[in-house]
Design a protein that fits this description.
Layout lengths: L3 E6 L1 H8 L5 E5 L9 E9 L9 E17 L12 E12 L3
Length: 99
């Protein structure tokens, strides 16, 4: 049975996913991702370095993706992919929030 994961994503990466330029994520495999699982990528901003105008939190923009490929560093040693991380290929299912 597929699972639904909710994850933060920085605005620059969110925009690349939204335009279709970025079709993968490298993530810590802390929730046992599997092909067929869905991920809600929730745009997250942290402007704490831009004092005095600071904002930290979700922007309200979300993209739902389905994992169609997983490369796991636990089973295959890949240069540049740290132990405990995985590369996830995905397809976009939909989006919500302001664009």
């Amino acid at each position: 049975m597929s699972k639904m994961h909710n994850k933060k994503i920085w605005p620059c990466y969110f925009n690349d996913v939204a335009t279709g330029k970025k079709k993968f994520e490298i993530r810590k495999n802390d929730c046992n991702y599997e092909e067929g699982d869905n991920i809600v990528l929730k745009e997250w901003r942290d402007d704490s370095d831009d004092l005095p105008f600071t904002y930290s939190g979700y922007t309200g923009r979300e993209i739902i993706v389905r994992i169609i490929y997983k490369l796991d560093s636990e089973f295959v040693k890949v240069d540049g992919l740290e132990d405990g991380y995985c590369l996830l290929g995905f397809e976009i299912l939909g989006s919500e929030g302001e664009n």
